[in-house]
Amino acid sequence: MAKKLKKEQYLCVSAYVRALEPQLLTGTDLSRMIDADSDSEAIRILTEHGYPEMSANMTSLEDSLRSARDTALESLAAFLPDQSILDFFRLRYDYHNAKVALKALWTGEDAHRLLMSGGRLEERALYQQLQASEDETLPQPLQDTVVQARETVGATGDPQKGDFLLDRAYFAEQNSLAEQTKSPFLMEYSKLLTDIANLQSLVRVLRMKKDVLLLSEVLFPGGTLAVDTLQEAAYNGNIADTYAATSLENAAALGAAAVEGGSLTAFERACDDAVTHFLQTAILIPYGLEPVLAYLAAREQEQRNVRIVMSGRLAGLPADTIRERMRETYV
C-alpha cells in the first residue's frame, strides 16, 4: 500500500458508503431502544437497521454484532480499490485473539468464547496455532512479538507482561499501516487512538496508585504527545494541563477527576466521544478514503453503544443510568 490512490478511485465505494449511512443508529434510535417496553421491541429496532435476528441474551447479541461486523468488512472489500486498507480495522482482532490464546495457554483455561472474528487471521485457527506454539507462519511483526511474549512470561511468570508487549506491537503496527496509506485522515485517527490509550493508561495507573514506573510498559509512542511528556505529567500530577488545547482536553479533565475518585464512566465516555467528534469531520467530504474509514470506525462506535444499551436493559438498569453511559453517535 505504498502508492497513494487518487480520490477519484474511491468514487464507487464512497457512493456505496453514503447509501449505507442511513442504516446507522442515531441517538434517537438508541433512546427508543432504552425506552422500549420490552427487550424484543428494542431488538426489533436493531433488526430494522440491518442487524441479524437475535434473542434477548448477551450471547445472541454478540453473535449478531459479530455477523454485522463481518458483513460490513466483506461488503466493502468488494468495492475498495485497495483491500489492504481494511487491515487497519482487522488488526485489532488479530492481536486480541493472540492475547486470548496465549493467556489461555499460560493459565490453562479454555477461552474460545472470548475470540472475536473480523481479523486477518481466522480466530480459531490462530488460537490452535498459538496453543501449539506454531508461530512460524504468523505475519510480521505479530510473530516476533508472540515469541518475545512467550520468552518474557516464561522468565517472569507474569502473563500481564505478555499483554503489554502485544499491546505495544499492536499500536506500532496500527500506526505503520496508517502511514502506508498516506492518508492524513487515517494517520490522525491512528494518533488519536494512541493518545486515548495512553491517557487511559495514565488514569488507570494513577487511580490504582500503582508505581508510575509501570508507565514505561503501558505507554506507547506514535501519539501526538511524546511518552516522556506523559510520564512527566504522571510524576507532576498535571494530566489536565498536559492535554489542554487538544481534542482530549475534556477527557483529560475528567480523567484527572477520576484519579481523585471521580466518575470513570464519564471519563471513558468522553474518550469515545472524542473519537466520534473526529470521525464527524468526514461527513461533509463527498468522496475519497475519508468517508469509507469514518463509516467503518462509526460502525465500531455504534456496536459499543448497542452493547451498552442492551447489556443495561438485560441487567435491569434504570433508563437514566444507561443514558449516562451511552456515547455520542456519528449521525
Uncertain regions spanning at least 5 consecutive residues: none
Biggest β-sheet description: none
- Hey, roughly how much beta strand do the residues contain? under 5%
Helix residue percentage:
55-70%
* Order of helical and strand elements: HHHHHHHHHHHHHHHH
Number of domains: 1
What overall geometry do the principal axes of the alpha carbons give? Answer: globular
End-to-end span in angstroms? Answer: 30 Å
Radius of gyration: 20 Å
Average predicted local confidence, pLDDT: 93
Count of helical regions:
16
Give the tally of β-strands. 0
Structural class by SSE content: mainly alpha
Describe it for me?
The chain is mostly helical and about 325 residues long. The chain has one domain. About 65% of the residues lie in helices and about 0% in strands. The chain is globular, with a radius of gyration of 20 Å. The relative contact order is 0.13.
